[in-house]
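Work Package 4 report. The design task specified in the project plan requires that, given a folded chain encoded as structure tokens, an amino acid be chosen for each position. We show below one input record used in the internal validation round.
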């Protein structure tokens, strides 16, 4: 509606006063962000941040409509979701997000040959199962393991599909783990700065948090860890990248 009317801004009133550097319930040092890019907001929404729905951010980006997230209960100016600018790029990491709705599935001992990946993931796609992180181990004696993450609600269906794939491909076993979670460091500044992953990994290592899987994009580093370490990991990464400092 805002795009169709040619509005200068679209104000969305919610039960929070803006977008925070991370979940304030997990980290007391979390602070409200004054400005955030569309891409950063999309990544944070996809990782479980409940402030804005992904679809609304996609429309805002497509039609270049700035969106201001504000509280229904105060006059606080909130957070402006807008196009990326030089100031945003100067910030290495803008926020830390997490997602506990994760399950890890591994298909063990599959033949390492062309067509195996399709045999695994095509049936999942046909059933509407969304696959996120994917890791294939190094081949050993012509066989390998394939590990991927899905939403916990899809685990039962996924395991049933993988049992069928196991029989067709000659895999040796299917194992799963629901006690996992994703933690992500997000920021458009990653495009122009190196060493973000190294800093994140080092900080987690110092606290004895084992990294199970890693996924990266231009503006996001996602780490799969045991769910029991989520709160600690969020606080550590928030502190590591100085997000408790007011840099806006």
């Amino acid at each position: 509606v805002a795009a169709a009317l040619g509005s200068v801004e679209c104000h969305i009133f919610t039960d929070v006063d803006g977008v925070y550097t991370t979940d304030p319930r997990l980290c007391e040092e979390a602070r409200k962000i004054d400005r955030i890019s569309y891409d950063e907001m999309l990544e944070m929404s996809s990782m479980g941040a409940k402030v804005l729905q992904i679809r609304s951010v996609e429309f805002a980006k497509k039609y270049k409509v700035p969106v201001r997230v504000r509280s229904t209960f105060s006059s606080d100016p909130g957070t402006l979701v807008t196009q990326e600018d030089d100031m945003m790029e100067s910030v290495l990491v803008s926020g830390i997000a997490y997602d506990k709705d994760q399950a890890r599935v591994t298909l063990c001992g599959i033949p390492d040959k062309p067509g195996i990946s399709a045999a695994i993931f095509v049936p999942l796609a046909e059933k509407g199962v969304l696959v996120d992180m994917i890791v294939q181990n190094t081949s050993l004696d012509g066989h390998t393991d394939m590990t991927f993450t899905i939403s916990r609600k899809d685990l039962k269906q996924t395991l049933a599909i993988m049992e069928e794939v196991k029989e067709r491909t000659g895999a040796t076993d299917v194992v799963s783990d629901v006690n996992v979670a994703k933690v992500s460091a997000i920021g458009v500044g990653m495009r122009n700065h190196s060493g973000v992953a190294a800093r994140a990994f080092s900080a987690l290592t110092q606290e004895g948090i084992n990294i199970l899987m890693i996924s990266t994009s231009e503006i996001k580093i996602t780490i799969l860890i045991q769910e029991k370490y989520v709160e600690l990991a969020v606080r550590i990464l928030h502190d590591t990248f100085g997000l408790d400092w007011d840099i806006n």
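The mean pLDDT is 92. Validation will be extended to a larger panel in the next phase.
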